[in-house]
Structure formats: structure tokens, C-alpha cells
Amino acid sequence: MERLLVLVRHGQSEWNKQNLFTGWRDPGLTELGVEEAVRGGRLLKERGLSFDIAFTSVLTRAQKTLDLILGEIDQEGLETLSDQALNERDYGDLAGLNKDDARAKWGEEQVHIWRRSYDVQPPGGESLRDTVARVLPYYIREIQPRVMRGERVIVSAHGNSLRALIMVLDGYTPETIPSLELGTGIPMVYRLNADTTVASREILED
């Protein structure tokens, strides 16, 4: 039985390009972001990968990335489930602020703690631990059972919601997961064992 799970972070967004904290705000993709998503779909197609169901967040950048990927692999209209459980980490009062401006206001060290600690919340927002606490139950309830039944699953989401999944799949700790960098539009292909552990992982890049 093939237990296939593909994770992909959305392509570059307008706010990524402008170096803004984004969180639950909803900017679209840049031209580069569109190209990244299309390239990710092409790489999946080159490996002959197709899917039975897709999952994504309720945010436009993740949904558009998924649409572009599905177009490349000739699976437009694939059944897709969207849920805010897969949304990016909520940056609260930082959302919409330029990261350099935030450093000028609160200091380099404080902003670094907000961005890269596991359990410190920015003002009005979520810590990575909070994000994990909503993503993992959704994964265990909705996504993992389908993979274990042999359905081929793709998840288009965000840097921090995907960190939550990778933390479990690849055995990262609260100390190591915040520093994990995920490229935009780059598919990560997991195949799972019968006990839900990872049999193999491949990162698809040109």
C-alpha cells in the first residue's frame, strides 16, 4: 500500500516580498510565487505523482498555490478540504508590520524571540506551540487516517503550520523546530510506514 503525503508551502506572497509579518492576513501570490507553484506541480508531474484528496488552509496564498499545482498535474477539481486549522501562525499585532520596523520598535532580540522561540506569543498572537496545538489534532483526525488507508494526500499550507506537521513526522523538538526553514513552492514527498512513521522523504527541487 502506498501511503503518500506531500506537503508544500505556498509560493511567495506579496507580503513575503515586502518583508511583512503576514499570519492570518490574506495577500495573494507574487509573479514569482505563481512560478514557484507551477514549478512544484511540474516536479510532481515528472515523478508521476497524483492525488486522491487535497487539504489547504482558508487563506488565498495556500489555495492558489494548490490550484496551480493541480493544474500542472491535470487534476483540476480534485476534492479539496479547507480548514483554518491549517492557517499560518497568527502574528497578532505584528501582522502587516515590516520586520525591520518591528525590530526598530521592539528591538532585535525581542523580535527574534517572537519569531523563533517555541512558546512565546507575540502581542495578540500565537506562539509556535499554539499553532502546533491546533494543527496536530486536525492532522491526526482528518489527514493521517486517509494516508494510512492508502489515499494519496497533498497539503498546501504555510511555513509554521507545516512546521507543526514536520515536527511530528521528522522528530524535531521544541528546541530545533523553530529554526527549520521551508522553501516556498517546494514539495516534500513523504511515504509512511504502517505504524505512521516515515519510510522515506524527498524534497523536490530542480
UniProtKB/TrEMBL annotation:
CDD domains: HP_PGM_like. It is an enzyme of class 5 (isomerase). One of its GO terms (biological process) is gluconeogenesis. Keywords: Gluconeogenesis, Glycolysis, Isomerase. Catalyzes the interconversion of 2-phosphoglycerate and 3-phosphoglycerate. Pathway: Carbohydrate degradation; glycolysis; pyruvate from D-glyceraldehyde 3-phosphate: step 3/5. The active site is at residues 10, 88. Pfam families: His_Phos_1. The record marks 158 as: Transition state stabilizer. Substrate binds at residues 9-16, 22-23, 61, 88-91, 99, 115-116, 159-160. It catalyses: (2R)-2-phosphoglycerate = (2R)-3-phosphoglycerate. Homodimer. Its EC number is 5.4.2.11. This is 2,3-bisphosphoglycerate-dependent phosphoglycerate mutase. It comes from Saliniramus fredricksonii. Belongs to the phosphoglycerate mutase family. BPG-dependent PGAM subfamily. The keyword Transport does not apply. The gene is gpmA. One of its GO terms (molecular function) is phosphoglycerate mutase activity.
